[in-house]
Amino acid sequence: MKHQEAAAPGKSDDADEPEPDDVRASLGRRRRILIRVVAGAVALTGAGVVLAATIRSPAQVAADAAPPPASVLADRVERRVLTSSVVVRGTVAAEQSLTVSPGAGAAAAAGTGGKPVVTRINKQPGAAVQAGDVPVEVSGRPVFALAGALPVYRDLKPGATGKDVGQLQEGLKALGHPTGKDPAGTYGAGTKTAVAALYAALGYTPRPADPGDAEKLRAAEDAADIAQRGVTTAKSALAKAKAGGGTDTTEAQQQLTFAQQDLAKSTARLEAARAAAGPMVPADELVFVKGFPARVDAVKAAVGEAVPDGLLTLSAGAPMIRASLPAHQKDLVKTGMKVQVLSEATGLTATGTVASVATAPTSAAGGAAPGGGTGSGGSGAGAGSGAGENAAQDPGGYALTVTPDQALDARLSGQGVRLTVTAASSGDPVLVVPLSAVSAGADGRTTVTVLGKDPGAADARRRVEVRAGMSADGMVQVEPVGGGSLADGDRVLVAQAKP
User: Fold this and answer.
1) Distance (Å, rounded) from C-alpha 10 to C-alpha 82?
2) Mind spelling out the 3-state secondary structure of the chain?
3) How far is 154 from 167, CA to CA, in rounded Å?
4) Region for 223 from its dihedrals, namely left if φ exceeds 0, alpha if ψ lies in -120 to 50, beta otherwise
5) What digits encode the pLDDT tens for the residues 248-284?
6) Contact 478, 469 (CB under 8 A)
7) Mean pLDDT of 212-238
């Protein structure tokens, strides 16, 4: 029996086991195969997603092609007072604005000739002016203010009569200078005395009505004295004729009659001269304003400068609101309508009433607003016009004035404001819906469509016949008729977008 030989030392029992390099090569091949399999799976998955997004069933295609559901626009029925309003811009300004333009009279009176010169400014812009104040002095002469609605348009001289003389008399009395027994509106001896007293209180000497008055008065007095002596002489001659026993005194009597007639004429001339002589109030030196305190708005020259046109601007009277209505709104606004006033700059509000609406449009150059006027012209002291015209009136607009119901806050002076004029009102609360909610059918009925809980449910809708009333601001008053019902809070169809 043969015995197997023992394994050689250092040899493995399994003669087929691979070497380590072969193992690593086998693992690398397996990894590459796994990566390829995963990449292929990912690619197949992506392709499936793309195909799923692009390939749709016929049912899906039909659903996508179907029109979207109709959209419904609805609004609620309201119960409220319906008002029709006109909204315009306005400006808060004084009732009266005066431009003071002294002419050459002051310079002529001062003997300087030429153009008048500003010699003193007593009131700067923004300062208050009271009755009897002298805001400026021109060529050494005062320009003072008195109360009066009628503008200055002439020199006021002794012997003059009229409403402006009456205003002067009232102004003098208000300052403590009575006009005596002069009738209202007549510039007589009492008014002359009062004028002289006013000028003395202001620190000035009044101007004479005529520089030649003194000479004329002396001549009239001399003529009256001569006539009086003639009468005295004629009376003496007549008395001597009678005392001498003469029977014919006819000639002496005739001479006395002639002398008496001459005296009567001379006396009348003297009284006329006396009535015409005295202090006057030149138009250059007086400004009538509607109320005090007035205010200086502007001064256009400094002391020593020549007086320009419109040297001084004054505002006076109660504050008013002025605006301009476009032509298409003019007929909607009437005197007496209520107005809501709002200042966006300050947040202040007020109420007022339409005081006037112009019947003719304002020219592009800017004519005077109602209540304004023209003063005494270039040679006078005042030329009045409506305040705030430039800011509030558009070319071709119709001037509108609003009177505040109560005194306006001082902060509103000169401010631009929004005016809402109530042109019409339903008075009591009424049912209102948007204008677009009301439709007229072929049968002539006017209806609204009331929606159900689901606005899109057509079978839940009901048509209600209504009678339309006034409309304003896109809303219309409606009243259900024919037994239909409509209540505050109901939702009505305003519009429906069809697919």
Assistant:
1) 117
2) CCCCCCCCCCCCCCCCCCCHHHHHHHHHHHHHHHHHHHHHHHHHHHHHHHHHHHCCCHHHHHHHHCCCCCEEEEEECEEECCEEEEEEEEEEEEEEEEEECCCCHHHHHHCCCCCCEEEEECCCCCCEECCCCCCEEECCEEEEEEECCCCCCCCECCCCECHHHHHHHHHHHHCCCCCCCCCCCECCHHHHHHHHHHHHHHCCCCCECCCCHHHHHHHHHHHHHHHHHHHHHHHHHHHHHHHCCCCCCHHHHHHHHHHHHHHHHHHHHHHHHHHHCCECECHHHEEEECCCCEEEEEECCCCCCECCCCCEEEEEEEEEEEEEECHHHHHHCCCCCEEEEECCCCCCEEEEEEEEECCCCCCCCCCCCCCCCCCCHHHCCCEEECCCHHHHCCCCCEEEEEEECCCCCHHHCCCEEEEEEEEEECCCCEEEEEHHHCEECCCCCEEEEECCCCCCCHHHCEEEEEEEEEEECCEEEEEECCCCCCCCCCEEEEEEECC
3) 13
4) alpha
5) 788 888 888 988 898 898 888 877 777 778 899 999 9
6) yes
7) 83
Q: What is the pTM of this model?
A: 0.55
Question: Tokens representing 261?
Answer: 């007639």
Tokens of 140: 């050494």
